[in-house]
Amino acid sequence: MRQPKIIVVGGGLAGLMATIKVAEAGVPVELFSIVPVRRSHSVCAQGGINAAKNTKGEGDSPWKHFDDTIYGGDFLANQPLVKAMCEAAPAIIDLLDRMGVPFNRTPEGLLDFRRFGGTLYHRTAFAGATTGQQMLYALDEQVRRFEAEGKVHKYEGWTFLSAVLDEQGICRGICAMDLKSMQVRTFSADAAIFCTGGIGAIFGRSTNSVVCTGSAQSALFQQGVHYANGEFIQVHPTAIPGEDKFRLMSESARGEGGRVWVPRQPGDPRPPKSIPESERFYFLEEWYPKYGNLVPRDVAVRAIHKVVFELKLGVEGQPAVYLDVTHLPRELLDRKLEGILEIYEKFLGVDPRVQPMKVFPAMHYTMGGLWIDDENQATNVPGIYAAGECEYHYHGANRLGANSLVSCLFGGMLAGPAAVRYARNLERGADAVPVSVFEREQRRQEEINERLLRQDGKENPITIWKEMGEWMTEHVTVVRYNKNLERTDQKLQELLERYRHINLSDRTKWSNQTLNFARELYNMLILARVITLGALRRNESRGAHYKPEFPERDDANWLKTTRAIYDCGNIRFEYDPVDVSLIPPRPRRYDVQ
Amino acid sequence: MAETKTVLVHIKRQLAPDQKPYWEEFELSWRPFMNVIILLREIAERPVTREGKVTTPVAFDANCLEEVCGACAMRINGKARQACSALVDQLEQPIRLEPLSKFPVVRDLFVDRSRMFENLKRMKAWVPIDGTYPLGEGPRMAPEVQQRAYPLSRCITCGNCLEVCPQVNERSDFVGAAIINQVRLFNLHPTGAMHKRERLEAVMGPGGIHDCANAQNCVKACPKGIPLVESISEVNRDAIRQAIFGWLFG
Ligand SMILES: Cc1cc2nc3c(=O)[nH]c(=O)nc-3n(C[C@H](O)[C@H](O)[C@H](O)COP(=O)(O)OP(=O)(O)OC[C@H]3O[C@@H](n4cnc5c(N)ncnc54)[C@H](O)[C@@H]3O)c2cc1C
Q: Which of A491, A526, B157, B194 has a Cα at 20 to 30 A from B10?
């Protein structure tokens, strides 16, 4: 029998899990990642991972987890796979535990769980405040073991450029570039699984890591893979603004008892600790008594916007609110939140155990992503699979905290075996595809590099990127107006035009980061248009997508999945019905009991 | 007009591994809360030296920018540390940026630390599970054991501890404190401990724990405050015990 070969692009949680599953099935894997996989963005996940293990006698269950997820996502997620994910979650935690993730423990030696947003249950397992780091390391170690056994071959420091598609439009491998030698090369495979993560860089500054550009997703989109629900962008309520990035202060700070407030008196100049309790406005607790500080993120973000921009109550007149953990016992802070408090202390030089933190919302996560089917993580292009943040399936219009990590692992667990099945059943494997198919793609990609290196113009890629980020952040995040969305798309088209005149300040052929960034920038601009145009069309408010002109959810017209399709250089949209067969849509109200 | 405050930066450049290093100076305008990453990005947007010479952007490695991925380690004013958490206002000027010296330079401040990952392989730094199929819960663990393991597990493989170690040099292949700390971590885990012996054998091999000369620089350079010296002495004690009483366990 022919031995198939599988490529995984991306070594965050989703990619590593997919790799493990494929290797375990006895199929060789080639794993590509820009950064050494151990440095992937998943390392940033702080707060934890959800699973209804019901260890606190609260009567939690996978069904309740499922219901919270669907309700939190404002009924936009197709339900069957979400249900399967919530059912699988407890076993996923067990697996991580077996792999040695140092989850916090109860006195009985069991896993401890904390509360997170959008639920009333203690459902979030955590390893201090660096849960993603600990999980990523555990999976990285398992993959290293397979690597030592020769079952996995890593290409770290390589970037994916494009898929190799044959005449029938079937994926037969990938084209990638070595970021040291800048060599462009194709690799054949019977199936490729994409786990390339988030898209934060499209918004300039976000809570994401530098390599989260969405460039790979965009490249695939331009090759015919559909992109779903792109307009759903999650803004996280509590981040520390910085010029290089917004550093997250995890929801776990509130899960452990942290409170959000502003002084009642506008522009109150007093230091926060000297403002008496009665003169503090705990607006989330007042407006949402049942969930309090743990309302879902979209709700918290809009509340902060209201407090800062409408009520003008931002701390010291600035766009900031207090996130306060100073009333919590120090021992608890050190045992459960040290990782994030340390970030605040290191980057701002202020001890958050003593002083309330100043935070503001920041772009954080994309609910939208590569379109995949309802059972296999398969995209519409045969041989291309996707898992993790780069696909759209699990979170509807708003993701609940600590649900991403579980969806990454669940997606990887499905994608790996599905790709293996597909590859084994292929009539004609990639090895039977004429070399000309590979050569053509390689040539096409080399020509892009040559053109960029040759080009003489006046535009600087970083400047274009910054402008894109500013426009996207201002007009395509928390509050969206059609007029501004239209203007943003025009701006993006102008930037694409200016892109044709960029001048690379580095024309060398070795480890040229400028060239790679310029390539990514083009892909970001295209994906930015997908997000903006999707938002423009959707005339309703749902989850993270909020239009004051259309403030209500409109199920009659918009209970549907957006599917963006790239058609000869144009972006076209189609809409699919949402599978709501298990939980009928109901109004989403966190402010009533 | 008020004089604008500036930041002076000297950067050690090297275009490729086989090329000669050289220094370049940059002068940038100061803003509050600048870190070294912001300086490097600003140079990338406008790569002109202090003397007005047009140059290339500086290559460097970075990802999370919150000191948890380990990527952006470099020598800043002679000290191995992460660029993202190096705040300009806390640095003496001119700020000197150099690549880590114990790893091969790829370009400019970008070095190749793959050796560390290879060494993790040698030490079998993993919990050898039977498979990913459902086998129930993991072993119970006292909170106190978790509290001991977790800090060890926060190593970001930045390489700072190797950079400051006199035993890591061209004539030795000492794996360094980070790797030995991982041996301790996995030997602490109930399942990992079942394979303690293999790991201790590996750590007693060439480039292993015997090459440590107890300079104790590592623990001071660790951005995560990992008790590296304690890890080394604990692994050392276990290794000696195994060497002497090894047959007892067999
Ligand atoms: C600060 C922060 C905290 C968070 N905390 C939580 C939390 O507590 N709980 C939770 O559930 N979620 C959390 N999230 C969300 C969660 O961390 C991410 O959604 C998740 O880690 C994404 O994992 P992934 O495997 O999809 O992608 P990533 O971990 O981002 O990995 C992507 C991989 O793809 C590679 N890659 C990308 N592009 C290319 C290319 N062109 N070529 C080759 N390789 C490429 C990268 O090198 C990387 O290996 C948090 C997010 C942030 C930003």
A: B157
Distances (CA, A) of A242 to A208, A487, A524, B40, B66: 13, 27, 22, 15, 11
Distance A15 CA to ligand 1 centre (A): 10
B114-249 has the same fold as B6-111: no
Eight-class DSSP state of A306 = I
Superfamily of domain B6-111: Beta-grasp domain (3.10.20.30)
Note whether B48 contacts A: Cβ–Cβ < 8 A.
Answer: no
- Which residues of A are the active-site residues? 297
Give the distance (Å) from ligand 1 centre to CA of residue A36: 13
Q: Are A516 and B21 in contact (CB under 8 A)?
A: no
pLDDT of A159: 98
SS3 A550: strand
Q: What's the rounded Cα separation, in Å, for the pair B85 and B53?
A: 29
Phi then psi for A82, rounded to 5 degrees? -65, -40
| pLDDT tens digits for range A157-211 | 999 999 999 999 999 999 999 999 999 999 999 999 999 999 999 999 999 999 9
Q: Quick one: pLDDT at residue A457?
A: 92
**How high is the mean pLDDT of chain A?**
97
Ligand 1 pocket (Cβ < 6 Å) reads A 9-15, 32-35, 37, 40-42, 44-49, 131-132, 159-160, 195-198, 207-208, 211-212, 215-216, 248, 250, 364-365, 388-390, 402-405, 408
Domain regions of chain B by residue span: 6-111, 114-249
Sign (positive or negative) of CA dihedral A457, A458, A463, A467: negative
How far, in Å, from the CA of B181 to the mean position of ligand 1? 26
For Cα atoms B209, B215, B219, give the angle at the middle one, nearest 5 degrees.
85
Query: A147: burial class by Cβ within 10 Å (0-12, 13-18, 19+)?
Result: buried
- Enter the pTM of the model: 0.97
Chain B residues with CB-CB distance to A99 below 8 A: 127, 129, 138
- Chain-chain contact of B132 with A95 (C-beta, under 8 angstroms): yes
Interface of A with B in 279-318 (CB under 8 A): none
Q: How far apart are CA A224 and CA A169, in angstroms?
A: 9
Question: Do residues A378 and A226 touch, judged by C-beta distance below 8 A?
Answer: no
For residue A109, give the nearest of B141, B157, B192 by CB distance.
B141
One-letter amino acid identity for A358?
K
- Mean pLDDT throughout A124-150? 97
- The pairing of strands B6-13 and A369-370 is unpaired
SS3 B134: coil
